[in-house]
Amino acid sequence: MSPSIENQLNPTAVTSTSPTTFGFDAYIDSQRKRRRTFAIISHPDAGKTTLTEKLLLYGGSIEVAGAVRGRKTQRAATSDWMELEKQRGISVSSTVLTFEYEGCQINLLDTPGHHDFSEDTYRTLMAADAAVMVIDLAKGIESQTEKLFKVCALRKIPVITFVNKVDRPGRSPLEIIAEIEQKFKIESVPQNWPLGSGKEFSGFVDLIQDNVHLFLERDSDRKISASVQQWSDLNAIEEDSEDVIPPPRNGLPQSLSRKLVDSTREEVDLIRMAGSTLETDRFLHGEQTPVFFGSALTNFGVEHFLRGFLDLCPPPGDRLSSLGTIPASQPDFSGFIFKIQANLDPRHRDRVAFLRICTGKFERDMEVVIARSGKRLRIPRALRIFGQDRQTMDEAFPGDIIGVVCPGEFQLGDTLCHGSTLHFEPLPQFSPEFFAVLDCPDTSRRKQFDRGLKQLVEEGAIQVFYEAKSMRREMILAAVGELQFDVVRFRLESEYNAPTSISWRPHKLARWFDATEEQKKNLRLSYAAKLVCDHYGNDAILLQSEWDDKVLERENPNIRFHSIRVSKFQPSAAV
Ligand SMILES: Nc1nc2c(ncn2[C@@H]2O[C@H](COP(=O)(O)OP(=O)(O)OP(=O)(O)O)[C@@H](O)[C@H]2O)c(=O)[nH]1
Ligand SMILES: [Mg+2]
Of 47, 494, 548, which Cα lies nearest the Cα of 294? Predict the structure, then answer.
């Protein structure tokens, strides 16, 4: 680990708390420093899952990476475990994968790129200390990447960029660098530079060491080796000639041409003239992004990226809580739930809450408090989740993501802690864009349908609203994207054996608000608006268009309406 990083605060931290408030545990601290917890984000299809798999390959966790869109006979990607993901070849849910590399424990969160599952991705980002943003060289920055980058910027988490698919013809790397700067208002600092792209892609220049890595083979499934050369070694390459038999050149690939070497050199000189160097502090505060080029599919540049990434990615740091900024290496355990998933493994019909440990040490059989309800609970075992697989773990440290078999007590965003009760920042809720009511036409499956739907709502797979003024508490389901409904219906049918019918509602957005009973009584609503409350009992209004939203604000000037619901810290029960 680079010593400069070791001394940096995590960017999610605000200011450090006086050392008298919290204790310090040297063992926990040494474990914390070994951890790197990050999420991979991008527009669909940029190659997140492929990159994830290749990182695992280098970490020694899997032998052969399975092609994501491979033929039926090939293994599906380790991280795309859900049946629907396998069928469609897309990720619909984020996945945790943990591996060791050069003394570090890496906790990697592979996220779905599809807009329809962005809620899951936003929540997953809350659990990450850094993000890897994957950009397709041919497509540049796409809309979903832009939205996700904004969430990272809001949280001020550091972003490392991986420009992928350099093995395919694409845009010029200089153009990509300029686009990142212009769209994200962030300084991009290339760490390597590709030697050609498409069929010509034959290596990269390490801009830090100022040497050239040439790929020796093009085997895509396994780790590939590269020979490291100095610039002067490339002088052996003669001017491109029409000679049928090229002259021998000291172990350099025959495909490498003088023209390519010269044009790359020119680009590298241009980059150096621009003169941007990475400053740890600016990177950690989201003002600079280091940029790596490579190809996840062919493994080119993946290991170099992994090493560079480990040097840059900060270990878990201090976190903001209702008790102020809390140091990760204090002895008392605390963490929060950012995801709940039922039937993670069809063999174990249970629910698993994914908990990000923020401070202290988790031990098997530990008694914790659910900060929201004040309820005490013994956790007999925690699971180390690896895609679909699970293993029991005896202890876990800051930065780790553990699976806790969920006895039905947990809600998304819950803080669990040992010692002083505290709350971490609540998870935000995003305005849905699709609303519908699901029904189970087969009355004999009604019980399974109700149970399945309840679990899926608690997992956060879908939002739910109840009509406020009606006696019949109709459950209006709501999602950011239509595909979320497909997933819920698919899972109700495959996991609960409860086929459903769907009837769409005309609403297109939700607005949350805080108001007194008096204000609520006097709300002026248009015919199309519907007063509801959400799963947590928060008041909201469903609307059919942006126009309705404008009318709502105009008619109720004393109330503030929100498209993202971010709850305030609740006062801590005990200090
Ligand atoms: N040529 C080439 N293809 C790649 C590369 N990386 C990924 N792909 C292909 O791009 C497609 C999408 O890759 P995924 O890894 O599933 O993309 P993703 O970002 O995880 O997609 P979502 O999870 O659906 O958001 C697959 O067909 C991959 O084989 C690369 O470096 N080069
Ligand atoms: Mg994926």
Answer: 47
How far, in Å, is the centroid of ligand 1 from the Cα of 431?
A: 29
Which ligand is in closest contact with the Cα of 65?
Answer: 1
**391 in the same domain as 254:** no
Residue 46 C-alpha to ligand 2 middle, in angstroms?
A: 8
- Structural domain of residue 365, as residue ranges? 319-417
Residue 552 included in any domain: yes
Ligand nearest to the CA of 76: 1
Residues whose CB falls within 8 Å of the CB of residue 255, separated by 6 or more in sequence, listed in order: 200, 202
- The set of protein residues with a Cβ atom below 6 angstroms from ligand 1 is 42, 44-50, 67-69, 90-91, 112-114, 164-165, 167-168, 295-297
Of 386, 417, 448, the residue that ends a domain is: 417
Does a structural domain hold residue 11?
no
Helix (H) or strand (E) holding 258: helix 258-274
Ligand 2 centre distance from Cα of residue 181 (Å): 25
Q: Are residues 442 and 487 in the same domain?
A: yes
**Burial group, residue 477, by CB count within 10 angstroms (0-12, 13-18, 19+):** buried
**Structure-token pair, residue 256:** 């490498």
> What's the CATH number where 398 sits?
2.40.30.10
Give tens-digit pLDDT for 201-258. 889 999 999 999 988 765 555 666 778 888 887 776 766 555 544 555 555 666 677 8
Which ligand minimizes its atom distance to the CA of 42?
A: 1
Total-model pTM: 0.82
pLDDT digits (tens, 9 = 90+) for 36-62: 999 999 999 999 999 998 888 887 765
* CA of residue 48 to ligand 2 center, whole Å: 5
